[in-house]
Amino acid sequence: MLRDTRLIVWDEAPMTHRKDLEMVERSLRDLLRNDRPFGGALLVLAGDFRQLLAVVPGGTHANTIEACLTGSELWPHFRRHHLTKNLRLESGSAFQGYADFLMQVGNGELPEDEEGMVSLPSEILMPDDTTTEQLIQHVYPLFEPSPDRDQMFAERSILSPLNKTVDEANAACLALFPGESRVYLSVDSIPNDDTAATNFPPELLNRLDPTACHITG
């Protein structure tokens, strides 16, 4: 399949460590048997560097910058194109003010204190002692079956940069649903391939919790 691929779109690319990009580039050259960058395939990196960058566990600000894609020797191969229109706000959305605020944060236009921190509007904050359960009740006030419940869940979400926090929120949400919970296991068997079974035992697959993957409940 990869040998027939002509275009690869990598969404949220700024969250990726540059070494991961370089590893993919080497793999594509090997798989496609082509010494051109990325094996001659066209790679589109989509994302906004003003948002979350690559996470370096226990790292410093300098480590984060060093891990950024712009520090890769592959970066000069890319052409940069800027998107200027927010299609979600085309119809005069009531969230235009919040969108403008986010742009100010991303562009570094808000005043900083001596530690380089910015103050957030009080209306978007919750007290420090807010529990996970209180947050859930604020975002999802209705767990009992009703005509409006499904639409409420479709329109709202709780986001976190940490998989651990997502797991805690998911568990707390599930505990609030009426009825008995059931666990459905994913398929984790290996095809009849001795090499693959040795390199990727089911126990390893079940323990994988990559920081760059989006975990949803």
Structure write-up:
By secondary structure, the protein is mostly helical. The protein has a domain of 81 residues. 34% of the residues lie in helices and 4% in strands. It is built from eight helices and two strands; from the N terminus they run βαβααααααα. A two-stranded parallel ribbon has the order 1-2. The longest helix is centred in the first third of the chain and has 15 residues. The chain is globular, with a radius of gyration of 22 Å.
Keywords:
217 residues; globular; mainly alpha; two-stranded parallel sheet
Q: Supply the number of helical segments.
A: 8
Write down the Rg: 22 Å
Note the overall shape.
Answer: globular
Low-confidence stretches: none
Return the string of H and E elements: EHEHHHHHHH
| Classification by helices and strands | mainly alpha
Helix proportion range:
25-40%
Q: What's the rounded overall pLDDT mean? A: 86
Please give the alpha-carbon distance between the first and last residues.
Answer: 30 Å
The proportion of residues in beta strands is under 5%
Provide the spatial order of strands within the biggest beta sheet.
Answer: 1-2
Main sheet? 2 strands, parallel
| Strands, count | 2
Protein name: ATP-dependent DNA helicase
Domain DNA helicase Pif1-like DEAD-box helicase: 2-114
Family: Belongs to the helicase family.
GO molecular function, one term: 5'-3' DNA helicase activity
